# Entry
Amino acid sequence: MIRYYLLVMGIFLALGLIPRSHRLMNALAAGNGLLHLVMSCIALLMLDLPVKLGASLYLDHLNLYVELITALGFSAAAFYARGYTDSLMETGELDPKNLKTFYLAFNLLLVTSTVALFSDNLALFWIFAELTTVCAAMLVAILSARENIDAALKYVFIVSGAMLFAFLGLVFLFTLSEQTLGEGTLNWTVLAVHASEFSPALLLASFTFTFIGFGAKAGVAPFHTWLPDAYARAPSVSAILSGLMQNLGIYGIIRMYALLRESSAAPQASSILIAAGVFSIALASFSMLQQRNLKRLIAFSSVEHMGLLLIGIGVGTPLALFWVLYYMLIHVLVKETLLFSAGILHRQYRSNMRENMKDVFKLQPRAAWCLILGSIAIVGMPPFPLFPAKFFILLESAAISPYLTLAVLFMLILAAASFANFLLKAFSKVTAEEENEKEEHRHITGTSAGTGGAVKENSTGKAAYEKSRLPGQYLVKNGMRVPTIFMLALALALGFYFPDSLKDLLDAIILELGYV
Amino acid sequence: MIDPLFLEGIIKVLFVFVLISAGLIISTRNLSSALTTYTIQSFLLAAVSFLLYLIDGKGQLLLLACLTLASKVILIPYFVSRIEEKIKIGRDLHFAYLEPTPSLLLSIGLILLSYTFLSRVFEGLPLSKLFFFGAVIGLSLTLMGMLVMFSRKKVVTKALGYLSMENGVLMFGLFVTELPFIIEVLIILDLIILVLLTTILAVGMDSSIEEYRQKFRELQIWTGVESR
# Structure
């Protein structure tokens, strides 16, 4: 089945190379995202899950859920990409020749991540996850500036290098299955059935190695070093997509942990996950504190959230997993809001640095408000749905050690403080009106004294001065504004109303992973 | 039919050469000799796989040997050498954290580490001595490749480090278990795509070509303010 999917998508992508107009290319990318969204919705509603189609296509609630999140993120990013890439081309940062490559990598990324999610065979998952790294790196390098290429190469080398360790882990797993079942297999469904018969020591070794690989994919410290660079130097759209790929890593870790849960090595695996989680949160929150680069701030916040997810998985109770899964969805919604608004601000100021931003409310009021609300959401303030998710994960972690909970809570507060610190300093810089007028006056008298014709010079001089003082408002296209607000509104709506269908879906995932 | 014991002896000799090649990649400062070393290493891997075929008689091993020969001894080195010509840089003199001598010492430590680790993990497995050693060499090759990636600054050398890591993984897989052939093919495909991408990007990074310098200068708007 996967072969047919790849064939169809291959034809689709080949057709996507034909159009020359940006509008058409963008429409194809958005259509691709929406198609995947609709298809996974249909599969979720119509099929009797879990179901195995063909040799290696496996559909269950977990991978459909993650695919749903991914497709949603892609569709929003596709709508946003149009205005954003247009603006990049206008300023000459993006070579119009590279636009085709951009959309090719964009579509390819969705296709490869879909195959990775739906393949039952862990080796196939590994290979397609590797290919997503390649596509995402292409998106990061698309501006072909030295900084971008540097970030892309860092991304490829760190993630792919770590993924080779994951492959060693899979070799261990294969040996294990060969030893127990007589014939080696890497099919997750088969492994899940027999996991309790495997030797715990080897299973733990296999888990550790795969964790290195998938953890690097997810951006878990200490393998996170590619992430701030990829976020800060890549165009916003590419950053969003690399962010979506982090979920793929978490997905792999959830699957591997579900295998291990049955064996006696589970406590050790849990402690690995929790240790890595705490380390990620600590490292991220301390790096965020004095961060002056907006996108780096968002990137480290991603590392922090991945750490919290790991703690949730490591705690290993059904309740914790439930909120981890919910967290994955909300995190994508809020993170996209933040990155979309950061992208708009970057277009306005041509910089992500705090000191270059001023008069934000005058120039980009909507982006500023989205950023503020998004920050409130990402630190987990109550009306937003990250609050219950964080709350319950922390509550469950208290069962392991209350000190752990306290330490994590402290670091979460630190992260919230750094968001507040950044926003206050970046957004409070306003050129005062009086000062303006005084300066204007001086400027005008200065020019008029030189030429003599005071009345005539007055109006033109003022306009020219205005132009030089304010960097000129960047006109945000609707295509960029709508997805930003949509994602934020969706997150807010989920904070007030928890749909029953979502609850059923998450319950079904937990049941399928054998947690209850 | 050749005596299997004799073949095993040859394989053991090849192990030594594989380790030497990994050490050379760590320490050499000359890009083209690093590439030659990688080619020889891949050839050794193909030879090991061929000898295993002679012992076992499994057709899959022969196919693997041919595949390794075609992709890693011919295709990838050819491509990398084209890039090396293009960037007009012959030597990689800069090391990020470790100079060659400490990293060679460290790699001895890594070999010991993988030996002790694997001897504990594989306690319960019915693995013959030769195969156990193969796994140890594979794992240490992986770790040594990682060392190259860490300690080098030039992208081309980093890519060679990644490639030698991958050789290690393949070797590990070869001796520990028998992976389905399709997986091996897919890994090599993945490798080729990755090498294509990184080396094309490397032209941008390592290049001493004036055209690229110019381009970077034009894009100062992006680089100047952004960095840290």
Notes: The beta strands of chain A are 51-53, 57-59. Chain A has two domains: 2-430+474-512, 434-466. Chain A has a mean pLDDT of 84.
